[in-house]
Amino acid sequence: MTGFFSSSKPAHSSHNSSSPSPPHTFSETLMEDSLKNAEAIIKRWDLDNGSSNSSYCTISNLFRDNRAEAKQFVDAVIDLQHAMRFVIKESSSSQQLVRAQKLMQIAIKRLEKEFRTILAGNRYFLDSESTASREYSNRSSTGSDEDQASEDDNTVDIQARFSEVSITEEGEKISVTADLRAIADCMIDAGYGKECAQIYQLNRKSVIDETLYCLGIESFNISVIQKMDWDVLEKKIKSWLSAVKVAVCTLLYGERILCDQVFAVSDNIRESCFSEIAKDSALALFTFPEMVAKYKKLSIEKMFRILDLYDVISELWSEIELIFGFDSTAVVRSQAMSSMEKLREAARAILSEFESAIKKDSSKVVSGGGIHPLTRYVMNYLVFLSDYSGPISEIVADVPVSVKSPLPESYLLSPIADDENSPACAVSVRLAWLILVLLCKLDGKAGFYGDVPLSYLFLANNLNYVVSKVRESSLKLLLGSIWLSNHEAKVEQYMENYKRMGWSKVLASLPENLTVEISPAEVNQCFCKFNSGFEEAYRKQNSWVIPDPKLRDEVKISLAKKIVTAYRAFYEKNWETVSRSGSGGEVESIVRFVPDDLQNYLSDLFYGTGFSENSSTSHGSSSRSTSTFSSPLR
User: Which residues form the Exocyst complex subunit Exo70 C-terminal domain (predicted)?
Assistant: First the structure.
């Protein structure tokens, strides 16, 4: 192979050939032409050149200050590399290769500087620290609807940024990403892909780390988390929740796009670069929720932060799979899935604890048959829980409910009976079950009242509160109209039982059939029994309460229709009989109420204080006492 590049001593083949010139002459000529063309442009931008132009080349940027020469520079390097490959195949010992290799090293040194300078000068423009910070600021100051719109625009926003161009003084459009790709393609083609990737990784990894820090994402270990007070940890959770969508949909997704564009020529390099840049930060990002799920001081009240964490990862799962789809980043997908599983386990444990707490509640009944604090607590909790029907359905989908209750099965009716295996049905049944557990507990507490009518009033008040909470919240959609109508009917049933048993003695004192004539003595006896029964019922019930104004008015109207109407008819028929048979004092002791009195007394009931402000004004007293019943007949 000696003398391969010598034009004065052409080499001769050992075989007979009619070819006038062997291929070695062509390769030598090709290399000489490539060297001559490349040397002029490459040495002009040699960073180590000792000429007067050296200082200019050192401080100036080829791709920024002289784009025409930048294109020539890249083309020259590519041509030189192709020529070197051709010569190596023909004569690997050619002296021209040594000269070409030195020139190539000069070119690569310049390209490394250009690559590094472009990355450093555009670190906030390329991907996104500015974009992420702007999105973060917007999300912190706007409502949920705007948040959703902003999230939907993330992909468009990032792609637009990557296609943005700047304009030179000559009006030429410049794409920074295209410049980076041109340099990367050139270096990879020249065999310097590793060096190019290292420069890229060093710069972009710092951008990722700095941006996550600005967004409030921190790295913790489990021991630090376990030692935190909940107030401190909750602030960390809120910070994480406000930042994670920006981190995934803007920062990491944008970095994946940038990496794919810059290193489009090499699948291996773009995968290894993105993995090196983003994997550690993403692992730290998705490890935090798992550590929260393992927090030893989790309690019922902390459920909603667990659901927040689960919900956001579930919502981002498609993006996580897309961004970290490489084999080398599979560990990130695994970590996100692991966090979801641990959060799911934590939520299930809290739900079990919540159910157990209802069953074990030992608080006393409230006076007057009002709404029990347990009822308020449980229903407010379930209302909040219903707003998380999506994550809850995933969490309880494969957890069966064992129905063991003294109450009818109708209490557990779900609105989705057609598909009992659907996630929506699972959450509906679970919520209906928790309400059933509450109603069972209230049923037991009602027995502690010494008065059966008061027990029914207590059950009616509390079930009415349950129904109202369901009707006014997302629970209505989950439990459905059938569930609502069944429980509304049960409220009416409880209230009818109260009215029947609480006022039976009063109603029984009046004859059922007013057309039947009775003696004056029997008339007097009926009035006396009515007086006694009404006074006793009023005295007992003037401290009872119906908190719901609508239900309270309905009960008063119903009682008035039954009691006042029956008494008025009896009064109007028998008043003259009583008045003829005795003196004024005797009449007043027998007929102690006129019909309108009863209406006023009934209007005072169910406020829990024994009187209403309106009635106290109309009766001229500030309270109702036993002596009120001794007032003169009016």
Answer: 238-604
**Cα separation, 84 vs 108, whole angstroms:** 15
Dihedral, 177, 179, 180, 183 alpha carbons, nearest 10 = 160
Q: What is the CATH number of the domain that holds 445?
A: 1.10.357
Whether residue 272 is contained in a domain is answered as yes
Q: How many domains does the chain contain in total?
A: 4
Q: How far apart are CA 78 and CA 74, in angstroms?
A: 6
DSSP 366: P
- Of 490, 502, 504, which is closest to residue 544 (Cα–Cα)? 502
- By residue range, what is the domain housing residue 39? 26-121
pLDDT per position as a tens digit, 386-440: 999 888 888 887 666 555 545 455 544 444 444 454 456 788 889 999 999 999 9
For residues 391 and 393, give the distance between their C-alpha atoms in angstroms, rounded to a whole number.
5
Cα pseudo-dihedral 329, 335, 341, 344, rounded to 10: -120
Q: Copy the structure tokens of residue 93.
A: 């010992």
Are 475 and 456 within one domain? yes
Residues 85 and 47 both lie in one domain: yes
Name the domain boundary from 319, 351, 383.
351
- Judge whether 20 lies within some domain: no
Gyration radius of the chain over CA positions: 43
Query: What are the structure tokens assigned to 148, written together?
Result: 């959703």
Cα–Cα distance, 438 to 357 (Å, whole number)? 10
Query: What is the rounded (10 degree) CA torsion for 178, 183, 186, 192?
Result: -140
- Alpha-helical segments (H) within 324-404: 330-360, 373-386, 389-396
> 412 and 544: one domain?
no
pLDDT in tens, 114-164: 999 999 888 766 654 333 334 334 444 444 444 444 444 433 443 333 344
Residue 610 belongs to a domain: no
Please indicate, yes or no, whether residues 214 and 247 belong to a single structural domain of this protein: yes
Q: Above 80 in pLDDT, residue 171?
A: no
* pLDDT score at 146: 46
How does pLDDT run across 525-581, given as a tens digit for each residue?
Answer: 888 888 889 889 999 998 899 999 999 999 999 999 988 888 888 888 877 777 666
Extract the runs of DSSP E, i.e. beta strands, from 377-490: none
**Helices 144-152 and 129-141, packing angle to 10 deg:** 160
Quick check: is 565 in a domain? yes
Residues 111 and 67 in one domain: yes
CATH number of the domain encompassing residue 108: 1.10.220
Are 83 and 217 members of one domain? no
Q: Are residues 596 and 519 in the same domain?
A: yes
Quick one: what percent of the chain has pLDDT higher than 70? 74
Q: Any residues with CB less than 8 A from the CB of 299 and at least 6 apart, and which?
A: 350, 353
Q: Report the chain's terminal Cα–Cα distance, integer Å.
A: 138
Distance separating alpha carbons of residues 543 and 306, to the nearest angstrom: 43
Q: If you count them, how many residues does the chain have?
A: 634
User: What does the block give as tokens for 434?
Assistant: 């928790």
Residue finishing a domain among 502, 532, 552? 502
CA 480 from centre of chain: 24
Per-residue CA distances from 257 to 200, 215, 480, 619 (Å): 14, 20, 45, 80
Q: Are residues 378 and 498 in the same domain?
A: yes
Supply 157's token pair. Answer: 């926003």
What angle separates helix 520-541 from helix 595-603, to the nearest 10 degrees?
A: 10
